[in-house]
Amino acid sequence: KEEERLEEEERLEEEERLDEEERLEEEERLEEEERLDEKEILEEKERLEEEERLDEEERLEEVERLEEEERLEEEERLDEK
C-alpha cells in the first residue's frame, strides 16, 4: 500500500512537472510571437516612413523641375523682346 501511494505521488509530481514545463514552453512561444509581431510592426512603420520620404523627395524634385521650366520660359520671353 505504501508503495502504491509513493508511486502515485511520484506520478502526480511528474505530471505536475510536465504541466509546468508545457506552460513555460507556451509562455515562451507567446513571448516570441509577440516579439515577432512588434518587429513586423516596426518594419512596416519604417517601410511606410521611407515610402513617405521618397514621395516627398519626388514632389520636391517635381517642384524644382517646374520652377526651372518656368525660369527658362521666362528667359525665352525676355530674349524674344
Structure notes:
With 81 residues, the chain is an all-alpha fold. The protein contains one helix and no strands.
Low-confidence stretches: none
Taking the alpha carbons of the first and last residues, their distance comes to: 120 Å
What is the strand content?
under 5%
Number of strands: 0
Q: What best-fitting shape do the alpha-carbon axes yield?
A: rod-shaped
Mean pLDDT: 96
Question: Tally the helices: what do you get?
Answer: 1
Radius of gyration: 35 Å
- How helical, in percent, are the residues? over 70%
For the largest beta-sheet, the strand count, sense and barrel status come to: none
Task: Name the helix and strand elements from N-terminus to C-terminus, one letter apiece.
Answer: H
Helix-and-strand structural type: mainly alpha
